């Protein structure tokens, strides 16, 4: 799993996967500049995991939540348009 934790990467995982969340937080606390965590499934992060990861969040690790499942979210991300229009101020 750790090979996926690269600087600037978006980690997409279900919010009910404490193993992935803790591993990502440990990586962030040890200098891996993860782009962000995107938690899927609409689950609330377990309070104990949230407490355990406080220091990682304090490093500025962005965490976003969506209601769609991991598969649906991944498909949506594949079609996400990253281009900025020329006339964008």
From TrEMBL:
Single Gene Ontology MF annotation: phosphate acetyltransferase activity
Main enzyme class: transferase
Transmembrane segments: 20-41
This protein's UniProt keywords: Acyltransferase, Membrane, Transferase, Transmembrane, Transmembrane helix
SUPFAM superfamilies linked: HprK N-terminal domain-like
InterPro entries: DRTGG, Phos_Acetyltrans/Butyryltrans, Ser_kin/Pase_Hpr-like_N_sf
EC number(s) stated in the UniProt entry for this protein: 2.3.1.8
Domain DRTGG intervals: 1-79
A Pfam family reported for this protein in Swiss-Prot or TrEMBL: DRTGG
Subunit composition and interactions: Homohexamer.
PANTHER family named in the record: PHOSPHATE ACETYLTRANSFERASE (PTHR43356:SF3)
Entry protein name: Phosphate acetyltransferase
Gene name in the database record: pta_3
């Amino acid at each position: 799993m750790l090979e996926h934790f690269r600087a600037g990467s978006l980690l997409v995982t279900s919010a009910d996967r404490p193993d992935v969340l803790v591993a990502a937080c440990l990586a962030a606390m040890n200098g891996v500049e993860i782009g962000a965590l995107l938690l899927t499934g609409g689950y609330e992060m377990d309070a104990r995991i949230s407490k355990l990861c406080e220091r990682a969040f304090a490093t500025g690790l962005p965490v976003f939540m969506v209601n769609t499942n991991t598969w649906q979210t991944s498909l949506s991300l594949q079609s996400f348009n990253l281009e900025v229009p020329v006339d964008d101020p």
